[in-house]
Write a structure and sequence with these properties.
Elements: E1 6-8, E2 21-23, H1 30-33, E3 43-47, H2 54-62, E4 69-74, H3 78-86, E5 93-98, H4 103-107, E6 112-115, H5 131-148, E7 153-156, H6 161-175, E8 183-185, H7 188-202, E9 213-215, E10 222-224, H8 237-248, H9 250-257, H10 265-283, E11 289-296, E12 305-313, E13 316-320, H11 328-353
Parallel strand pairs: 3-4, 3-6, 4-5, 6-7, 7-8
Antiparallel strand pairs: 1-2, 9-10, 11-12, 12-13
Helix pairs in contact: 2-3, 2-10, 5-6, 6-11, 7-8
């Protein structure tokens, strides 16, 4: 099990502001961390394994003891990635699949599909600029998944997540295989960043910090609920604004720092690996596993997809938690970002049905 895993509290540990997380004590053995749940063989298919996110994510998945078989797919060049990580002395079996003609083989038997395939952001690009290319890639891959492993959990990393998750849902609806509990947008990186930045600002141990991040996964739609942080922290109004904007703009900071040579690939791989581990634990029957994820829900009226804290279980998303109480600053940000989020959702739906 990867060292960064969080297990959130049970209902008895939930505050009035939503589910609060606590961390597993470092140094405990895997057996003592888990609740005597036996992990069955789990095949994970990684679509886009040769890219900037896919390669480090491949390595992290190869290190994950909850994975039995790792299937790597890309349009070209993934054989080298597979050969490379197959030399790591972990028991995970690695297979590589190149090109559309081998996609079926990559998907057969998969219980979890992670999709980071697509083009990355470059300086000056918004996530919306990525839409035309990445939307088509996601549509094709989800169509294949709906045909070859319709019961698998699908996790979308490919941006713009605010639109690609609705695309995936519409594709599965057309195929008659839609299950909203099994389609998730990986917004985990926003939580990872929020936890890191708040811990640094308040001089806390980052292992003890959990900040729910709701809304979407792009710019102003990213809404960290600092008022619901664990442990409780306080910020002035000016500090709230500064911290919120720092979390929202963190991806742009990385893109600019890499000066045209990449985007937030390593931190995204880390976040996706964390989400994958949590999902695999839920699939194996581990209780009380919570993460924030961008999913279909009715948490917000007239907004069919929204990132919020979810309980993960044997079939994917077992429960979507309510948002809890927001302070005045968060409520204002929430009200302001909803039109943008709804527009991104509709854009994805329209693309899938065109």
């Amino acid at each position: 099990m990867l060292a960064y895993k969080r297990v959130a509290g049970s209902a008895a540990q939930t505050s009035s502001k939503g589910a609060s997380s606590h961390r597993v004590t470092p140094g405990l053995s895997r057996k003592s961390r888990r609740h005597s749940v036996t992990c069955e063989a789990k095949k994970v298919a990684l679509l886009g394994a040769g890219g900037g996110i896919g390669q480090p994510l491949s390595l992290l998945l190869k290190m994950n003891k909850l994975v039995t078989e790792l299937s790597l797919y890309d349009i070209a060049g993934v054989a080298g990635v597979g050969a490379d990580i197959s030399h790591c002395n972990t028991p995970v079996k690695v297979s590589s699949f190149n090109g559309p003609e081998e996609l079926e083989g990559a998907l057969q038997g998969a219980e979890l599909i992670i999709i980071p395939a697509g083009v990355p952001r470059k300086p000056g690009m918004t996530r919306d600029d990525l839409f035309n290319v990445n939307a088509g890639i996601v549509k094709a891959l989800v169509e294949a998944a709906s045909k070859h492993c319709p019961e698998a959990v699908i996790q979308l990393v490919t941006n713009p997540v605010n639109s690609t998750v609705p695309i995936a849902a519409e594709v599965m609806k057309k195929a008659g295989t839609h299950n909203p509990a099994k389609i998730m947008g990986v917004s985990t990186l926003d939580v990872v960043r929020a936890n890191t930045f708040v811990a640094e600002a308040k001089k806390l141990d980052v292992k003890d910090v959990d900040v729910p991040v709701v809304g979407g996964h792009a710019g102003a739609t990213i809404l960290p609920l600092l008022s619901q942080a664990t442990p409780p922290v306080s910020f002035t109004d000016a500090e709230k604004k500064m911290m919120t904007e720092k979390i929202q703009n963190a991806g742009t900071v990385v893109v600019e720092a890499k000066a045209g040579k990449g985007s937030a690939t390593l931190s995204m791989a880390y976040a996706a690996a964390r989400m994958a581990e949590s999902t695999l634990m839920g699939l194996s029957g581990e209780p009380n596993i919570y993460e924030c994820s961008y999913v279909q829900s009715d948490v917000v009226p007239d907004c069919p997809f929204f990132a919020s804290k979810v309980l993960l279980g044997p079939n994917g998303v077992a429960k979507v938690l309510p948002l809890g109480n927001m302070d005045a600053f968060e409520q204002a940000c929430f009200d302001a970002m909803l039109p943008e989020l709804k527009a991104s959702i509709q854009k994805g739906i329209d693309f899938a049905n065109a």
